[in-house]
Amino acid sequence: MLMRGGTSKGAYFLAEDLPADPAVRDDLLPRVMGSPDPRQIDGLGGAHPLTSKVAVVSASAGPEADVDYLFLQVGVDTPEVSDRQNCGNLLAGVGPFAVERGLVAPTDGETSVRIRMLNTGDLAVATFPTPGGRVDYTGSAEISGVPGTAAPVVIEFPPGGSPLLPTGKVRDTIAGTPVTCVDNGMPTVLIAASSLKVTGYEDPEDLEGDPALADRLREIRLEAGPLMGLGDVEGTTVPKVSLLAAPLHGGAVMTRTFIPVRCHTSIGVLAAASVAAGLRIEGGVGQDVARLPAEGERLRIEHPTGFVDIEAGVEYGAEGAAPVAEGAAPVARRTAVVRTARKIFDGTVFPRPAGAAHHL
């Protein structure tokens, strides 16, 4: 099933319909998506990392979730397949897909699906309308970066087990640049855009076309990886790097997020969750540029094509009152966001034959 989830698009498969051997599966999926080819002309992919994604869904093996969701990022001009990160955008389609495929029985009105994200072990709960026991994709919810409106998918993330500050510090200096490293579902390095001699308001293509910036981002990512407990990140898309600037449209902050050097035309759900939590951390780099609403109010994260409204809070110690100076580590509270998803088509895909010659 091809679905739009949030501001991404991908192929959703039942795990049982794919090869059980990961190596065989990872040989198949680039041929399904049309990789390696910058146009992906011979497959389902849309010539961009945001449209070269795969969700693999199965009934959950444990009692805490209804379904298990494995996200796979398929390279566009490379045949690589990576499971090193989550995708909060495709996550928006997992619940509806699970109902469509009979993994979860819907209720009349709305259905909540408990989802385990296998890439990290984190949990999420997606709630969406199912009048008459059928998924309804139509509605009035609107998200930036997607034309028109659709039914809302409310995604709630309970606090995860990973430290919110994976380096143990509110601020680090990496490659000579002040940063805050955050993980509230997506390992993300927060940097004031001005620290890299850009405004943070540039068009994504202009940022991508800046070789000096690309070199700096790569240097920061490679140094941040081990500090964040991710090891060597040379061939991965995590951690994300998000440049922060003062908001332009009444939000909390303006962002430019890189995956890993392609500039996202919007921002992923989990990256937005990490940015939002990072802004709430006292002394973080985000507080130098952000305009924060009152505690408990949703934060509007601005991006190149609009905004994401997200609820994210941070507390210190059991009572939420201990200041940073006393050494209490910040902990993320409930995180929730409204997204949309839509079924585009349901059918059979015919991958390029194995071993077929392919030249860029």
UniProtKB/TrEMBL annotation:
Q: Which Pfam families match?
A: PrpF
Q: What is its EC number?
A: 5.3.2.8
Quote one Gene Ontology molecular function term.
isomerase activity
| Tagged with keyword Isomerase | yes
Known InterPro entries for this protein?
OMA_tautomer-like, PrpF-like
Q: Specify the enzyme's EC class, one word.
A: isomerase
Q: What's in the keyword line of the UniProt record?
A: Isomerase
Q: What family is reported?
A: Belongs to the PrpF family.
Q: What is this protein called?
A: 4-oxalomesaconate tautomerase
